[in-house]
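Retry 2 of 3 after timeout on previous attempt. Resubmitting structure tokens to design endpoint.
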């Protein structure tokens, strides 16, 4: 018995020692990473700034996917940092030009728009902008065409093909496996629920998708044609015939300027800087160049940029837009005397109606104290548009997806599936609808009628706030509402936004509105420190979500989450019908 106890004790001690070693290892990684971030790189004379976007471009750090094992890596680039860096490079004597490495671009379409605009402004300095690609996606090529010259690998390709969207339907799947779906919605364009009640795209949804795609493709095509000096007919033929997929045809049809290997392209850069081919080319990546920037303003007056990125939920999680946490951010900014104006950067397809309403109320209180300007990113739809109704002024990107003024509710149940497998339930209640909802027995008789009234009431409240902010009648907003999604260009024409412009223009206007000549720009929420990231990633639900997402893929996980996550099934939803990804 004594030997047994000794062995047990020894094993316990060994496990504790191993746990301490592992924990110490992670702490050492965190400290090492923090130290490395403090070391600023230097910019050598006669350098080229390299724009390589293999790391994701994000609006804010709250969108960043973290891992227990990548503390030493640069996980993302923040849009405002990129724009500031390009602006700084324009007057930096050490930077002689910019090289865009167009492959593997990970950025939203409006982020590409902003970067493109910053590069157009950079070119006014007289410095060159060149682009090189092996296999350029359509979005990568859209960015590359801002360059003075586009170079393509001799066996590369340009994926220039136009835009389309594909909607997946689950009605037959749900019926086959006994999954019941109760749907309540207001607005014939509120297509979020269509995949569960139809097997094809409704005429209304087809109309709005066609309008939306043509608006965005028209914006993108106009800029490509202008930059490449292509007439409408030549461009259409090149796109319809997929000429970009064959390097020689891409060159012949003026989609590229020259076919070169990467080392030959490097020699082109050297020649442009009058460097001999046997000498090294000084290059600095956009990530490292960002780390050389310093805040030029010594003013304590501040324009705060509050990022609202992701779906809207109740609660206080760090990721997404969670009402409790965002209300605290808003109140802190309202009470901070150094903050003279706030820019709300919205990149959200919406979510919980209740959470959206809570956030809108607090933003309205903030607006009573200081200017509140809203800037739209890729998405500012449904709940994302709703929370923007506190704004003094709304800036939208031309290719933003916005509007979707409508609400819906969805309840899933597994009654038939359970019955097929011998599972049944019985109910004892005190009142007619005590068992409001059960995943096994479904909704009570009074549940759907009551939810329908709630949906209608919420829709009227939604439209009311839009009428107040946009200074239009209920009938005018209802006519362009009904859940319909619009492009930023179309939203400007309809009066749903005030201006088409970038986040930088929104910040400048906010400063003007607050009568500021000198000011600093601060981002909120602040980036989580290494310790917060570490403990966030050790939470059980975070680990489980990442494992499932990794196994089935991000797009499939989004669908899986819509059906299984209680956050999506509780209460009235103000959510975008779908997510359109422009590749």
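Retry 2 succeeded. Sequence:
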């Amino acid at each position: 018995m004594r030997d047994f106890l000794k062995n047990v004790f020894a094993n316990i001690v060994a496990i504790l020692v191993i746990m301490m070693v592992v924990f110490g290892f992670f702490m050492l990684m965190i400290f090492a990473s923090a130290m490395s971030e403090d070391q600023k790189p230097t910019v050598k004379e006669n350098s080229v700034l390299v724009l390589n976007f293999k790391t994701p471009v994000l609006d804010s750090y709250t969108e960043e996917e973290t891992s227990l094992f990548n503390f030493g890596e640069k996980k993302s680039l923040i849009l405002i940092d990129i724009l500031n860096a390009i602006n700084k490079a324009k007057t930096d004597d050490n930077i002689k030009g910019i090289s865009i490495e167009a492959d593997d671009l990970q950025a939203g379409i409006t982020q590409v728009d902003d970067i493109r605009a910053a590069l157009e402004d950079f070119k006014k300095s007289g410095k060159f902008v060149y682009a090189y690609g092996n296999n350029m996606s359509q979005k990568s090529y859209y960015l590359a065409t801002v360059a003075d010259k586009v170079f393509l690998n001799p066996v590369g390709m340009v994926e220039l093909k136009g835009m389309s969207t594909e909607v997946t339907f689950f009605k037959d799947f749900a019926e086959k496996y006994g999954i019941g779906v109760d749907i309540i919605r207001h607005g014939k364009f509120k297509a979020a629920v269509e995949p569960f009640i139809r097997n094809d795209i409704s005429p209304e949804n087809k109309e709005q998708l066609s309008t939306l795609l043509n608006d965005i493709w028209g914006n993108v095509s106009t800029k490509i044609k202008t930059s490449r000096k292509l007439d409408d007919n030549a461009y259409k033929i090149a796109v319809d015939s997929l000429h970009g997929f064959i390097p020689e045809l891409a060159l012949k049809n003026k989609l590229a300027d020259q076919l070169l290997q990467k080392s030959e392209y490097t020699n082109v850069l050297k020649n442009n800087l009058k460097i001999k081919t046997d000498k090294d080319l000084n290059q600095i990546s956009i990530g490292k160049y960002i780390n050389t920037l310093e805040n030029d303003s010594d003013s304590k007056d501040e324009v705060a940029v509050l990022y609202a990125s992701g779906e809207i939920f109740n609660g206080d999680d760090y990721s997404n837009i969670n009402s409790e946490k965002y209300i605290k951010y808003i109140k802190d900014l309202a009470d901070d005397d150094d903050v003279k104006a706030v820019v709300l950067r919205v990149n959200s397809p919406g979510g919980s109606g209740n959470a959206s309403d809570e956030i809108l109320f607090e933003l309205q209180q903030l607006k009573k104290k200081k200017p509140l300007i809203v800037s739209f990113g890729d998405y500012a739809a449904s709940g994302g548009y709703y929370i923007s109704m506190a704004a003094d002024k709304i800036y939208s990107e031309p290719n933003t997806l916005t509007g979707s003024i409508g609400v819906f509710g969805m309840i899933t149940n597994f009654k038939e599936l359970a019955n097929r497998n011998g599972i049944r339930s019985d109910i004892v209640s005190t009142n007619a609808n005590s068992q409001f909802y059960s995943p096994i027995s479904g909704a009570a008789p009074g549940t759907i009628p009551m939810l329908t009234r709630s949906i209608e009431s919420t829709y009227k409240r939604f439209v009311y706030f839009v009428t107040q902010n946009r200074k239009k009648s209920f009938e005018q907003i209802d006519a362009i509402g009904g859940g319909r999604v619009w492009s930023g260009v179309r939203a400007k024409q309809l009066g749903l936004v005030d201006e088409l412009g970038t986040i930088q223009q929104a910040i400048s206007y906010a400063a003007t509105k607050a009568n500021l000549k000198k000011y600093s720009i601060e981002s909120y929420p602040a980036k989580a420190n290494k310790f917060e990231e570490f403990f966030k990633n050790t939470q059980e639900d975070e680990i489980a979500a990442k494992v499932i997402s990794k196994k089935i893929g991000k797009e499939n996980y989004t669908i899986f989450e819509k059906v299984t996550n209680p956050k999506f099934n509780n209460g009235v939803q103000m959510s975008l019908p779908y997510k359109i990804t422009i590749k």
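Attempt log closed. Residues 2-38 form the longest helix (37 residues).
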